[in-house]
Amino acid sequence: MSQAVIDARLSGLIGRFYEAAVDDAVWTGIATEISEALESTSAVLKLHGADDDIRLLEHTDNLLVSDDRQSWATDWHKRDLWVARSARFGVSRIVTDHDLVSPAEQRQSGFYQEWLRALDIFYMVGAVFPGGDGALGVLGIHRPARAGAYADKDRHNVSILLPHLQRAFWLSGQFSKAA
Fold it and tell me: What is the dihedral of CA 160, 9, 125, 175, to 10 degrees?
C-alpha cells in the first residue's frame, strides 16, 4: 500500500474519531478501519479501569469469542502483558511488542500460549493513554507472525492517530457529562 493511501486512511480516521466523540454509534467499525490503515489484521480499543474493570469499546471480529468463552477472554484482557508493560514504559508512548517483551519470552508466556496464539496475533504496535476517570485507554494494533514485525513507519502512523484518539475520548467524556 502506498504512503499516500495510508495518509488518506489516517486522515479519514481522524475525522471519524471526532465524529465518534459526539455520536457513540460512530465508533462501530473504527477498529477495523485502524487495522486496515496500518496493514494489520486486528485492533482493539479498550479501557482498563480500577478493580480490574475492563471495557471493550471497539475491536475487530477476530477478537470476538463465543459466549461460553467470555470469562476466558475477560481474564486474558485483565492479564494483558502488553498493557501492563506499556503502562510501565510510559503513558502515551507508542510501543511495539519488541519494546515490551523479547520474542522468546512472549512465545513462552501464557499470554501468548493461551490467548494470542488462539487469536492468530503475534506482533503489536500501540499505546496506553489517559482514558478518563482514572481509567487507562488502550489502543492495540496486531499482526500474525507471518505478516512481520512493525517498523518505525508504523510507529509514526500510530503517533499521528494517537493524539486525535485521546482528544476524541476526552471530548466524548465532556459531552457525556454535559448531557
Answer: 60
For β-strands 135-143 and 95-96, DSSP reports them as unpaired
Task: Count CB neighbours of 154 within 10 A.
Answer: 20
pLDDT tens for each residue of 36-75: 999 999 999 999 987 778 888 999 999 988 899 888 888 8
Beta strand 42-48 pairing with 95-96: unpaired
Q: What is the pTM of this model?
A: 0.92
Lookup: cell for 167 = 482528544
What gap in Å lies between CA 54 and CA 39, rounded to an integer?
A: 26
**CB neighbour list of residue 115: distance below 8 Å, 6 or more residues apart:** 76
Residue with cell 507508542: 94
**Rounded distance between C-alpha atoms, residue 170 and residue 65, angstroms:** 29
State how far the Cα of 73 lies from the Cα of 66, in Å rounded to an integer.
9
Joined together, the cell numbers standing for residue 22 give 459526539
What is the Cα–Cα distance from 43 to 56, expressed in whole angstroms? Answer: 11
* Single-letter amino acid code for the residue at 154: D
Q: Which helix (H) or strand (E) holds 96?
A: strand 95-96
Q: Give the tens place of pLDDT for each residue, 64-97.
A: 888 998 888 888 888 888 998 998 988 999 999 9
CB 119 within 8 A of CB 64: no
